[in-house]
């Protein structure tokens, strides 16, 4: 079985992708997830600082508490992420985390200037000027500041006696938020001071497109993690996990009950943990007791389930009007910019946003997308070595494209209804350019998954069954449509049985939408068969009469004797 792609023009980095090593038999462990989100829960914010933050786009984010991340689920998604398209390649098409998802789940603004600036050193002086404190030698290394220093010096300070102190505490809290949740690096314990100058003028922090910066950071870390020699991943992984929980049924927990008490007479359409009109949708998964069905089953199991995933297991449009009406207005404030085809910028990171590759997420039929270039050269730029200079100068061309983003927007297409048919032009194209399956044919669960030693992946069998059933159905359906009138009924019945068996196989596995099923017109009863049946009836009548006559003769003979 060939896992694809048949046409390698688009997925030209397949040879260095994790999926290639997995198919060749290499057992890659789940990625180590880097972040500092657990400590963010313990950061006690002074009330005066929280009041100020609640008037900014970070209000919803401040309500986020610690949510355990699922390394198996995130690793399985990374195996389907493609740097060439900035999308997840699923069995039924492409999907991705878009600017819409950032706005809905995190409540961050999309409109505004990009997250960029310079990296010119002087970090100690910058801390003194904007934080009002000098980090110890152990707390700072280059542009990296330890989160524990921010935690120990700025959390839960009761005496804030001046506007300057208030602003310093506010910057420290937002910087901690960046390092723990929005822009975490692989150290898991530091935050880059490169973000601090953007917080100098606090009246202008809402003029920055923090949402696009967060998405750029997620894209970059996903792209890096697809390499076969990468063993860990950082970035805003909570955004990725919440996106998966909202859209993918595999690995999604059930909300058993809320840990927030409900007030009598108050309606909670999205759960009591979501404050109607104030919170983003991501708060739905916070402060709740979650029950898991296939959570923690192991990477091999989740990978196999995604290989067998059908379109019915994916929610193309979770943000329905009945949901959106209860969210913070900031979630939909920039909806005109959700479908821009533009570079997302976060200092050294420039990652392209291609909503034209997943228009079903916006309610439109998916057409074959134009070729996009995610630029391998841009992916090679990093902050290693404490590079000094201006990222605004380095990426001035990309910044100009971001500022002119509204001139390159995906126009609404035909409404998308139901599920895509196998004969759809897009599906035929996609099936040729994608990696169809990740799990190798010889894959079994080894000793590293002792709790699930009984599990044997069946994704390859499922793919073969689906393809065989579709070929059988289309072939027999064409034979029935073109069947001559004089075909024997027995032969027609056999072909019809084969067609119905393949149809039932597709329908029972959730793949019935892949074919155009129409109840065929039964052929007219052949004249030959009528004559044959009439002759057969005549013969049977004659044989019956002869048998009855013979029986009467024997009875008469017995009486004479």
Task: Give your account of this protein's structure.
The protein is mainly α and 561 residues long. It is built from 20 helices and 14 strands. The strands form six sheets. Strands 2-3-4 form a three-stranded antiparallel beta sheet. A three-stranded antiparallel beta sheet has the order 6-7-8. β2 (81-82) and β3 form a beta hairpin. The N and C termini lie far apart (79 Å).
Q: How many β-strand stretches?
A: 14
Number of helical stretches of at least 4 residues: 20
Spatial separation of the terminal alpha carbons = 79 Å
Helices and strands: which structural class?
mainly alpha
Strand proportion, as a percent range, falls in 5-15%
Low-confidence spans: 447-453, 518-533
Rg on CA atoms, Å: 32 Å
> Which outline best applies?
elongated
Binned, the helix content reads 25-40%
């Amino acid at each position: 079985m060939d896992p694809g792609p048949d046409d390698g023009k688009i997925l030209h980095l397949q040879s260095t992708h994790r999926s290639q090593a997995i198919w060749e038999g290499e057992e890659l462990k789940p990625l180590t997830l880097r972040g500092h989100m657990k400590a963010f829960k313990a950061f006690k914010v002074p009330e005066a600082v929280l009041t100020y933050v609640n008037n900014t786009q970070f209000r919803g984010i401040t309500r986020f508490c610690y949510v355990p991340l699922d390394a198996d689920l995130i690793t399985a998604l990374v195996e389907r992420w493609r740097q060439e398209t900035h999308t997840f390649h699923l069995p039924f098409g492409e999907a991705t985390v878009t600017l819409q998802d950032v706005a809905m789940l995190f409540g961050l603004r999309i409109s505004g200037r990009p997250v960029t600036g310079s990296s010119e050193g002087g970090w100690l002086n910058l801390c003194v000027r904007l934080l009002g404190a000098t980090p110890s030698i152990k707390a700072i290394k280059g542009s990296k500041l330890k989160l524990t220093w921010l935690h120990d010096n700025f959390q839960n300070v009761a005496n804030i006696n001046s506007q300057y102190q208030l602003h310093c505490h506010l910057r420290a809290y937002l910087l901690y938020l960046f390092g723990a949740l929005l822009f975490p690096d692989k150290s898991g314990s530091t935050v880059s001071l490169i973000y601090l100058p953007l917080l100098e003028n606090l009246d202008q922090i809402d003029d920055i497109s923090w949402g696009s910066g967060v998405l750029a950071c997620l894209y970059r870390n996903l792209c890096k993690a697809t390499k076969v020699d990468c063993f860990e991943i950082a970035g805003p992984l909570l955004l990725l996990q919440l996106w998966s929980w909202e859209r993918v049924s595999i690995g999604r927990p059930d909300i058993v009950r809320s840990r927030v008490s409900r007030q009598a007479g108050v309606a909670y359409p999205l759960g009591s943990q979501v404050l109607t009109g104030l919170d983003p949708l991501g708060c739905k998964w916070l402060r709740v007791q979650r029950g898991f069905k296939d959570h923690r089953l192991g990477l091999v199991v989740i990978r196999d389930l995604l290989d067998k995933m059908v379109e019915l297991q994916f929610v193309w449009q979770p943000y329905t009007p009945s949901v959106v009406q209860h969210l913070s207005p900031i979630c939909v404030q920039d909806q005109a910019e959700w479908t821009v085809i533009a570079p997302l910028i976060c200092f050294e990171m420039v990652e392209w946003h291609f909503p034209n590759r997943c228009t079903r997420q916006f309610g439109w039929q998916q057409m074959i997308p134009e070729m996009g270039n995610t630029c391998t050269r841009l992916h090679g730029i990093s902050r290693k070595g404490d590079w000094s200079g201006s990222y605004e100068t380095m990426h001035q061309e990309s910044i100009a494209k971001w500022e002119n983003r509204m001139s390159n927007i995906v126009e609404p297409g035909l409404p998308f209804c139901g599920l895509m048919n196998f004969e759809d032009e897009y599906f035929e194209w996609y099936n040729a350019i994608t990696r169809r399956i990740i799990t190798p044919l010889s894959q079994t669960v080894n000793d590293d998954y002792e709790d699930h030693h009984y599990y044997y992946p069946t994704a390859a069998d499922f793919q073969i069954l689906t393809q065989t059933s579709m070929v059988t159905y289309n072939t027999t359906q064409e034979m029935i449509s073109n069947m001559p009138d004089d075909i024997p009924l027995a032969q027609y019945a056999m072909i019809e049985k084969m067609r119905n068996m393949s149809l039932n196989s597709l329908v029972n596995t959730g793949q019935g939408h892949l074919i155009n099923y129409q109840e065929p017109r039964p052929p007219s009863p052949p004249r030959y068969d009528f004559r044959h049946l009439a002759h057969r009836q005549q013969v049977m009548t004659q044989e019956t009469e002869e048998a009855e006559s013979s029986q009467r003769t024997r009875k008469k003979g017995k009486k004479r004797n």
